[in-house]
TrEMBL record:
Protein localization: Cell membrane
Top-level taxonomy: Bacteria, Bacillati, Actinomycetota, Actinomycetes, Streptosporangiales
Homology family: Belongs to the PlsY family.
EC number per UniProt: 2.3.1.275
Function summary: Catalyzes the transfer of an acyl group from acyl-phosphate (acyl-PO(4)) to glycerol-3-phosphate (G3P) to form lysophosphatidic acid (LPA). This enzyme utilizes acyl-phosphate as fatty acyl donor, but not acyl-CoA or acyl-ACP.
Protein name according to UniProt: Glycerol-3-phosphate acyltransferase
GO MF term set: acyl-phosphate glycerol-3-phosphate acyltransferase activity
A single Gene Ontology CC term: plasma membrane
Organism: Microbispora rosea
Pfam families, A to Z: G3P_acyltransf
Pathway the protein acts in: Lipid metabolism; phospholipid metabolism
Length: 204
């Protein structure tokens, strides 16, 4: 059986992940209602802004689509790297770098989409979708953290933040520390996007 050179899976993960992430789901969904989420509200083309402007029902496809971008990118990287996994479905071995690269590229595509003038969102749901592939047990536990926090605070936003921030800790029992550090690096991109949004808000 002929094996692909190591560079080829990484290029597939990088290019494929970026193109998947660049699909402007929020812009497409809101655009059908005559709204450009990049020009209203907090100007973030993502689930929360669409929900605030157009309601929860309209925002559901945005939620699903943005998360699906991370899932598909993670699967693309996993397959490009040879589909190596441990017992609970955690990405392992040579598949890990390709999967992480694909998810990172999808997050970058969501943040700076080539199909939407490089004006994108904050990549939180795309990150979550990627983690669902990279470490399914951590993703399920993060959902549990979200649910418990929501029950205690009655705030989905607070629950979502708690679930996302808990992911590296929840990943520790299932993956090497290097993978956990890579997850932290992905989260830094989210932090960068929130920082950029805060600076933009101060200028306006």
């Amino acid at each position: 059986m002929t094996t692909l050179p190591p560079l080829v899976p990484m290029l597939v993960a990088l290019i494929g992940g970026y193109l998947l992430g660049s699909v402007p789901v929020a812009v497409l969904v809101a655009g059908r209602r005559g709204v450009d989420p990049r020009e209203v509200g907090d100007r973030n083309p993502g689930f929360w802004n669409v929900r605030e402007r157009l309601g929860g029902r309209v925002a559901v496809p945005v939620f699903a689509g943005d998360m699906a971008k991370g899932v598909l990118a993670g699967l693309l990287g996993l397959l490009a790297g040879g589909a190596h996994m441990t017992g609970p479905g955690v990405v392992a071995g040579p598949s890990a770098p390709a999967a992480y690269l694909a998810v990172a590229a999808a997050m970058i595509g969501h943040a700076w989409p080539v199909f939407a003038g490089f004006r994108g969102g904050r990549s939180v749901l795309t990150f979550a979708g990627g983690i669902a592939v990279i470490c399914p047990p951590a993703f399920v536990l993060a959902l549990a953290v979200l649910a418990v926090t929501f029950l205690l605070t009655r705030s989905f936003a607070i629950g979502a933040r708690a679930g996302v921030f808990a992911i590296p800790l929840l990943q520790l029992p299932f993956a090497p520390i290097g993978h956990v550090a890579a997850t932290g690096a992905l989260m830094c991109l989210i932090g960068l996007r929130f920082g950029q949004a805060a600076l933009a808000a101060r200028r306006t």
